[in-house]
Amino acid sequence: MTQQYSMAVLRASRLLIVLATMAMMFWTFGTANAQTNDRDGDGLTNSQERNFTHTSPVKADTDGDHIKDGNEDTDDDGIDNTDEKKVGTQIADADSDNDGIEDEDDQANSADECARGIEDDADQDSDNDDLDDEDEDDFGDDENDADTDDDGTEDGDADDDNDGIEDGDEDDDCDGVEDEDDQGENEQ
Question: What is the pTM of this model?
Answer without folding.
Answer: 0.43
